[in-house]
Design goal:
Elements: H1 2-24, H2 44-57, H3 60-69, H4 75-86, H5 93-104, H6 112-180
Helix pairs in contact: 2-4, 4-5, 5-6
């Protein structure tokens, strides 16, 4: 009984090892490489998601290197460039948005929702960044308004003090006149 179990375990182990070795020698389908393509195969969405994560985590050197590897003519290359540039600075976001818009329509149907989602996220970031800019200028104008109100308040306090002093002087004059009578 024990020897049958050992034999079964050995066979399962050999099959598992043989299976792993056979997987490693299989050829990788087109579009499953380092830079994704529009080749509609089993790894289409997975390769784009993985590349999107690389773009999000990549630094300036990685972006430069990747953009150097990618052409600019084919729609899939435009989508790759859009993805890389969308994680660059705000100065590149408009161009990335235009590239997304140009390339989404020609993407395989399974990939279009992902590219559209990335475009929507980019547009939201652009909107928030623009609001941040106008918010800062509004805060600046609010600061200026606050300062103007403080200055006006100081002037009114000064006028109130002068009027109060004049009223006290008039009250003293009135008391002096009333005291003579």
């Amino acid at each position: 009984m024990v020897s049958q179990m050992k034999t079964t375990l050995v066979l399962v182990g050999v099959m598992a090892l043989a299976g792993c070795q056979s997987l490693s020698s299989e050829s990788i389908p087109a579009g499953c490489g380092e830079i994704p393509t529009y080749a509609d195969n089993v790894c289409l969405v997975d390769s784009w998601v993985a590349f999107g994560l690389q773009a999000q985590r990549g630094d300036d050197d990685w972006r430069e290197q990747t953009l150097g590897k990618v052409g600019q003519r084919r729609m899939e290359q435009k989508a790759v460039r859009a993805l890389v540039l969308s994680w660059d600075g705000p100065g590149e976001w408009q161009y990335a948005s235009n590239l997304y818009k140009a390339s989404i329509g020609s993407a395989p149907a399974r990939l279009q929702p992902l590219l559209q989602q990335w475009l929507n996220e980019l547009e939201e970031r652009r909107k928030l960044y623009a609001q941040r800019g106008t918010g800062a200028s509004q805060q600046g104008s609010l600061h200026n308004d606050t300062q103007a109100l403080k200055n006006e308040n100081q002037k009114l306090k000064q006028q109130l003090k002068e009027m109060s002093d004049k009223l006290d002087a008039l009250t003293d004059i009135e008391r002096t006149i009333n005291a003579r009578d």
